[in-house]
Amino acid sequence: MQVERDWAEALIDKRIALTGASGLIGRSVRALWAALELPAPIILSGDARAPAVYDAQFDCLIHLAGVGPSRFARDFSEAMAINVQGVQQALTACARQDATLIFISTSGVYAPLDVHALREDDPIEPPRAYGESKYIGERLCRAWWTEQSVPVKILRLFNVYGAYQSADLLPGYVLQQAVSGEPIALKTPQAQRDFLHADDAARAILSACAQSWEGFDLFNVGEGVSRSVAEFVETLERVMGRALPQERQPADDANEQDEVSQFRADITRIHNALGWSPSLDLEAGLRRTLQQMGVETVEESEEAD
Questions:
Q1: Is residue 163 part of a domain?
Q2: CA–CA distances in Å: residue 36 to residues 1, 6, 25, 30, 287
Q3: CA-CA distance, 21 to 261, in Å (whole number)?
């Protein structure tokens, strides 16, 4: 934990605020701050679109609040408003307080490519509305930096997973089905993802908070490894020490059928600039996830037997 303690040293006297504190990544952020004996983040709760949410005084705001992809299918207009207006209010508050914003974006902003690990300067063309809402947020961040001198660090997280994740997201669904013993219905098992444990996402956020609080910067955050959904399930089976029942279902649309064969982050930039690298590969991350959920796992020594 030495590198984390070095990052934490820069934050001892800083007031860090956090939206979305009850979500998967928010819980990991709060746990990491506690483990490093940092002052607890100032929790900003309520509708992220409401100016009153940001009344507390802070030096840096970690903006995690927002809605995920499934909300767009249920209520497109409301979902777009929450994600876009929320970051606009966060930026307004940072401008008022001379504070830095850490904006959590997504790999879903990138155009689908099947060439190389995705770099921060690769083409942007979100294939779905959720990614579009995050890219609008990124553009707002750049505008506030250009016009209002609000320092911003954007983290494009790849496919985050962790304990008690919503089943609306693929890793959360697979974990829920595996723990309950129910069949896992896979539509595109060949689809490639770069899976990132929530605790490593929290470490990336910590590293961004610890960076010099000026300017505008943007970083990919992932393990840097492309794995299929089928490999995610196979790794989970290995960690749990048993086969998991599965069902194959047809893809819902052409977007799902045409999943790119390679999808991973180039994390050179965040490593060089902030000193961050993932601490957990997929197997170690799934083992930690299950242990955090109180689920028994097969230890590596038992697997060897």
A1: no
A2: 9, 10, 17, 10, 22
A3: 34
**276-286 residue pLDDT tens:** 999 999 999 99
Given this model, what pLDDT does residue 39 score?
Answer: 95
Give start and end residues of each alpha helix (H) in the chain.
Answer: 2-9, 24-35, 69-74, 76-97, 129-148, 170-180, 198-210, 229-240, 254-257, 268-274, 282-292, 300-304
Band of pLDDT at residue 214, cut at 50, 70 and 90: confident
Q: In this structure, what token pair is assigned to residue 98?
A: 């001379």
59: nearest Cα among 100, 31, 18: 100
> Considering the entire predicted model, what is its pTM?
0.94
Q: What is the 3-state secondary structure (H, E, C) of 259-287?
A: CCCCCCECCHHHHHHHCCCCCCCHHHHHH
In a domain, 231, yes or no: no
DSSP-derived pairing of the beta strands 42-44 and 227-228 = unpaired
Task: For residue 195, give both structure tokens.
Answer: 């899976």
Residues 6+ away with beta carbon under 8 Å from 175 = 161, 165, 236, 289, 290, 293
Q: Answer left, alpha or beta for residue 190, where phi above 0 means left and psi between -120 and 50 means alpha.
A: alpha
Asked if residue 82 is part of any domain, the answer here is: yes
- For the chain, how many structural domains are there in total? 1
The whole-angstrom separation of Cα 265 and Cα 238 is: 25
Residue 260 lies in a domain: no
Mean pLDDT for the chain?
Answer: 93
- Rounded Cα–Cα distance for residues 279 and 196 (Å): 10
Angle (CA) 178-277-289 rounded to 5° is 20
Residue 230's CB: how many other CB atoms inside 10 A? 14
DSSP 118: B
Helix (H) or strand (E) holding 221: strand 216-221
